[in-house]
Amino acid sequence: MRFSVGVQALGLLGLLGLLGLVSAAPVQKRQILPLSANDESVLQLAVFLENLEHVLYTGGYENFTDAEYTAAGFPPGFRENVAVIASHEAIHIGALSAILESYGVAPVPNCTYNFPYNSPTSFVDLANMITTVGIGAYIGGSTLLVDNPNLLEDAASILPMESRHDAYLRTGIGASPFPTAFDTPLTAVWAYNLASMFVVSCPMYLPIILLPKLNLTSPMPPPSLQPPTPAGTILEFAWDPTTFFVPVDPSAPLYVAMINQISPPIFEQVTITGTGMGTVPVPANVSGVVFAVLTTFAGGLNETELTNFGTLAGPAEVVLS
To answer: Which residue has the higher pLDDT, 15 or 175?
Structure first.
């Protein structure tokens, strides 16, 4: 079963009114700084991601009962806290949208989404993946806000809340709340592509390129994300070579570049197993979530360079622990 949710189907205001969760402190007046193109793009991506998470968490509350969460092994009160997370996302959307509107910019509206979950556990697994993308996007976007300390402060105040949400979710399924010492920054292009996999349609799309898809076909994340997927485990990927933006010699070697935490990308040569299919091993010394892209480069590129010109397909999100 897949839950497809449009904004008109949420009824979240009634839900939040029932729970008494809608509250936000008035925004204090600060020195007004110009809104640069970078600022606007970061804020719009943040609204896009918060919209998606808002609908995701609302569905996690509305589509399952307390009894279903309990039967799946979640602690008492877990479903109610999913609703609290949804309320936080709504407040984030309101705050970010207000900033854009104060500069005369219309925030990106909500989309219609298709989320592939059919149980409390599969919902939480998906929420962990999507929230991890949001965390990476906030970290990556912060480097573009250095000229506007007000916006940097706003983003910095949201980021730890996203991490707290994810830690709570992970604890609920018996996983470590902090599987790595560092989270992984994501470029705007990679974050947008990862989130867009769940979009059915949007009244307005962001001016960010959509890359050919790279799909992880095996293995699936371990139950409760324990034990961690060990180094040497074979990862199977699939892609469509007819969608590449550049011609690629069929006999040329391909590589998967993997981004994890704050380390440089790790490049592994692909063992081709068929047309548009191949495998690579999990490298040593990676954990948590890895973001992988297909490339013709054997190494020497950072994440920004991979984004700008080095990615044939991807990214794919690989949950190891």
So the answer is: 175
